[in-house]
Amino acid sequence: MERDPILELIAQIQAGIRVEENSEKLFRRFRPSVQSFFVRKGFSVEDSRDLTQDVFLRVFKAIHTFRGESRFERWLWEIAAHIYFNEVRRRRTEKRDGLETSLDTPVENDDGSSPAPGIPTSDPSPEEQVIKGEQLAAFRAALQELPDQMRRCCLLRYEKGLKYQEIAIVMKISIETVKAHLHQARKRLAARLEAKREKEP
Amino acid sequence: MNDDTADVDRLFARLSAEGTHRDPDDHPAPEKLSAYQANELSPEEDSEIQEHLAQCTLCTELLLDLQRFLDPPSEDLPREGVADFETAAGWRELRGRMGTEAKAVSEFPRPRRAASLKIAYSLVAALALTVVGLGLYAVKLHGDLKAPRAGNHILLASAQTRGTAEPSDSISLHETPNGFSVTLVKPPEIDFPEYVAEISREKAPETGAKVLLAKSLHYQEGEGVTILLSKDDFKPGIYKIELSGLRGRQSSSVATYRLSILP
After folding, report:
1. How many domains, in total, are found in chain B?
2. Which residue in A49, A68, B52, B73 has the fewest CB atoms around it within 10 Å?
3. Residues B167-207: tens digit of each pLDDT
4. At what angle do helices A72-93 and A5-14 cross, to 10 degrees?
5. Helix ranges (DSSP H) in B177-242
6. Residues A83 and A137 in one domain
7. For residues A52 and A36, what is the distance between their CA atoms, to the nearest angstrom?
8. Which of residues 112-151 of B touch A (CB under 8 A)?
9. Across the interface, do B107 and A140 touch by the CB < 8 Å criterion?
10. Does B15 touch chain A (CB under 8 A)?
11. Element (H or E) spanning B180, and its range?
12. pTM confidence score
């Protein structure tokens, strides 16, 4: 079986074979992924470049510890995520709050699909404001009664605004299952609301 | 959409607007998130992470980033056939920082993170000495391992090149009936029409004394610069070979090699 070329590159670096040439290949291959990771997190392009350098500095410093038991991309992401957390903490310590607000990545929509209905695009409408407090409490309770995975799918879709495919990745289930969960959840919640309405005088 | 499901949507919007699900303060370590993605956790841990993900925008985004690392879109891949000056500049900067680090054995503090603790520098200096010592030992060990024993002498070699050539690949040697054949490999990015090799004995008694100046050497692609050393001139000892490139009257140092001939 042909070996993963990335693991082969790393094995050569670890063995001291053409270290600089192979390290440069690794850097060239993965720099765009790492830099776009930081840009997506809300850092400026310049800061993203600096943080990307930090990631690769740590990668090459610790490359002898990489054991090749899982994909290099996973290890690289772990390092990038640590540097991201550290940087966020550092900035928080410095009381710069600009970055934190930008961490909430704007919600993207699927091509042609409507925005997640649960994501408010503006202040609550007057109609929303008349929803009684007890109705909201009942809704919360009904949501909590949904099966765990169904409830989590609801939160990711309606609270976090994730696309079906993203929910599928996060929950490690198929898109069809996501859709089925959401469909079922809305039906069940609607039924609960209807049942409550019928009980009311 | 019937009235009931419309109500459901409005209630979700209301819940969201009230911010009932802010991100938690604590997050699982990246290693745990990636273990979750790779199905390496127990069912209990898996469920725990899923529950966290359902509440935490930061971690769901990170998990989606991991997926993007594993299955990158075209914009996250290097552009084939396009000169990528940004990456080239990034690599030069990284090399510089790694070079600095090799000397200091510590990450070079960037201005925004400058640490001014003297104790840190002392530790760095101590570490640097340790690593330099280990490096010298490794070079010697490597030389020992690759020492050819075809003739009556043991030949050891090491190299310090200025470019990308690996020291382990940049000098090869073997014993001939009348002497020694030494082939020097230069870094590929350095190129001169002609080369000169100055070979001097490094250890006593003739420290620094010039033994041989090999002129008009040419680089054979795929092989290197080959010099033949006579056994009459090269007794057992440690020799330094300095390879320089010549362009017109201009001479530039290319690499330094060390050759040990042991009896």
Report:
1. 3
2. B73
3. 545 777 777 767 777 888 777 777 888 888 888 876 545 55
4. 70
5. none
6. no
7. 9
8. 113, 142
9. no
10. yes
11. strand B179-184
12. 0.57
